[in-house]
């Protein structure tokens, strides 16, 4: 029987971007295996991942001095970037997208 592992634990991606991160808390033991630069977006009003858990994720992914950017959005709930969903936050969505583009342009090889 094979154990599923997220791609970051086996592959070496050039960069990682996470929106909402609701599954990340269950994978924090794998954080030391991730060496790629990463960007994480969290809404501070997310009903699926509370602020204490967001802090726990932050502490885990930044613990070893890896290249990590961590962005939070006040008043944004889960799926704030989904423009087809009632919880969409256009301002947070636009800012997260711009930050994602900036991050990828800085970190991906050209």
SSE map:
Elements: H1 7-10, E1 16-19, E2 38-43, H2 51-62, E3 68-73, H3 90-107
Parallel strand pairs: 1-2, 2-3
How would you sum up this structure, described in words?
With 110 residues, the chain is of the alpha/beta class. The chain has a domain at 38-110. It is 31% helix and 15% strand. The protein has helices at residues 7-10, 51-62, 90-107; strands spanning 16-19, 38-43, 68-73. A three-stranded parallel sheet has the order 1-2-3, with helices on both faces. α2 links the parallel β2 and β3. The relative contact order is 0.19. The mean pLDDT is 89.
List keywords for this structure.
single chain, 31% helix, alpha/beta, 3-stranded parallel sheet, 3 helices, globular, 110 residues
In short:
With 110 residues, this protein is α/β, with parallel strands linked by helices.
